[in-house]
Amino acid sequence: MPMQPASTEIASRTAAIVNELKGLEGPLLPILHELQEEFGHVPQDALPVIADGLNLSRAEVHGVVTFYHDFRARPAGRHVLKLCQAEACQSMGSEAVAAKVKQLLGIDFHETARDGSVTLEPVYCLGLCACSPSAMLDGEVIGRLDDEKIEEIVAEVRS
Amino acid sequence: MIPRIYIPADSGALALGAEKVAKAIEKELKERGVEAKIVRNGSRGAYFLEPMVEVATAEGRVAYGPVKSSDVKSLFDCGFLNGGYHKRWLGAPDKIPFLAKQTRLTFARCGVIDPLSLDSYKSHGGLNGLQKAVAMAPADIVSQVTESGLRGRGGAGFPTGIKWKTVLDTKSDQKYIVCNADEGDSATFADRMIMEGDPFVLIEGMAIAGIATGATKGFVYVRSEYPHAVATMNKAVAIARKAGVLGANVLGSPNAFDMEIRVGAGAYVCGEETSLLNSLEGKRGVVRAKPPLPAIQGLFGKPTVINNVISLASVPIIMDKGAAYYKDFGMGRSRGTIPIQIAGNVKHGGLFETAFGLTLGEIVDEIGGGTASGRPVKAVQVGGPLGAYFPRALFDTPFDYEAFAAKDGLIGHAGITVFDDTADMMKQARFAMEFCAIESCGKCTPCRIGSTRGMEVLDKVAAGIEAEKNLALVTDLCNTMKFGSLCALGGFTPYPVMSSITHFPEDFKPAPARVAAE
Questions:
Q1: A79-158: which CATH number, 3.10.450.30, 3.10.290.10, 3.40.30.10, 3.90.226.10?
Q2: Is any Cβ of chain B less than 8 angstroms from the Cβ of A142?
Q3: What pLDDT digit, counting tens, does each position of B187-235 carry?
Q4: ipTM greater than 0.85
Q5: CA-to-CA distance for B471 and B498, rounded, in angstroms?
Q6: What's this model's pTM, rounded to 2 decimal places?
Q7: B500: part of which helix (H) or strand (E)?
Q8: Which tens digit of pLDDT belongs to each residue from B237-249?
Q9: Which residue of B has its CA nearest to A34?
């Protein structure tokens, strides 16, 4: 696992991002996205800096961060695998796909493998509903998952 | 002339291997020393044929699909650059039955042009609508949209022109155009296809909306699950700004309009308009009570037009060809065309734009070709996770807002998910409650608590615990959610639940009886 940056470093890098984006109308979501891009998650130590920079209470910032599924409190694994579990994928066996992936990786949804290789998450629709069941691996889209593709994905995240 | 090869960069095509195909074609061109221009177009929407590669020949375009990277060598051997025959040969793309049967107004250019070439956009009729709009009085633009009969394609079906009129008539120092591109409903991908395949049509539609209502700033709120759409839209906005389509003088007129692309953060409820506005403002995506309407007090408290991608992308053709042209398509109070998205367990999945009025059966059996698994169709869910499940018995329902409402269903964003006879409707009903529980914003009690209780009660039914009594309880709970929730999330979750119970009662029999019946 990569070393966590020290809290002073988080604060200074956060302050730079806040300064860069606070001129936008409604800057909080763009700031949080940028922080997640920078640190791989939204660190606790960043919240007071955002609150200060945008003249919000810490509670407000905390409320926003925790409302959205995308923002992580902790870093994810080296790979992030999202499996679509919405209706169109269900109709094509997404549940069986999820069961197989979970078994092969030895983790459940919302978990990260112990070696830090991969985080597994459900997602509710990738807009690939005419090529179900679908998945997203590190931002790359994959459709019509079958045993062969699942094994390829698992091999890739393990390598 | 250097040959031109079209390889879609649409997410759906990429998910089926378009990138590998593109790489293989590039490699083959290099090895053979052949010069050709590769265009990364959007998708025409026939996903059962993706990746569909097209070649521009003297006789027009010739399509091949579904192409695998392992086909590439043999494609070259068969002379595909001149339209030569190969086992993947499909002929002229617009003659492929799935595409030939469509009426493409909003999606006319999608999959045809280079999405990021403004010249290509213009040479296919792009900017004609905006060109006309800048010379018109705002009220005239609004009345043209009203007369076209265009209704909100996001699901609610509210007349677009009426919404615009309210914003036009509300005095304010600042007004906004917000495009709802938080397309979270399963079975829908029309917004994604437009943003990836013809982004300028959305930009043009938003600029027209701005000029019509006096709004100078626009936002597109795209879901984070669509990284490719976000990237394409950002590039397109930069190009449009540079070309003077956006900016202080739209197409050289005195009208100012500019826009930004914003990314959501994985909350389904942000597809609800007021929740989306809160999210854009940087708040929790909690639903607002209406009134005040967003048209009067919307983004940052200012008058705001909030429309779905397809509604806005349909405006340019209405301005270009006139209200009557658009209105001429359709039936009843559902005018124009609708991009139907056929998804799930279906043989010919994809986007099918057509005038309102086809029956559900025609769409599923004839156009969709039945299930992919080859088993009988048991149910289709129309309108995403909040839409009703329709049994075969209701396949004569015409695709029309009012006709679906009359059968206790909804068109929503026009996505259709097909299920074969292995589907367990009790499981689907329970999932609807589960999804609502995961995605509820928490503002109102019927949605926040009702969804969890609904899940628990359905679990009891599944376990055979006082099934009849508990089904009555679910029905009662659905009634409370339907009439007591603030927005469509809690309010429409009863549609999939109740339609499952009503049309597929055999799936809700206690477990022992179900085993005996099988």
A1: 3.40.30.10
A2: yes
A3: 999 999 999 999 999 999 999 999 999 999 999 999 999 999 999 999 9
A4: yes
A5: 10
A6: 0.96
A7: helix B494-503
A8: 999 999 999 999 9
A9: B263
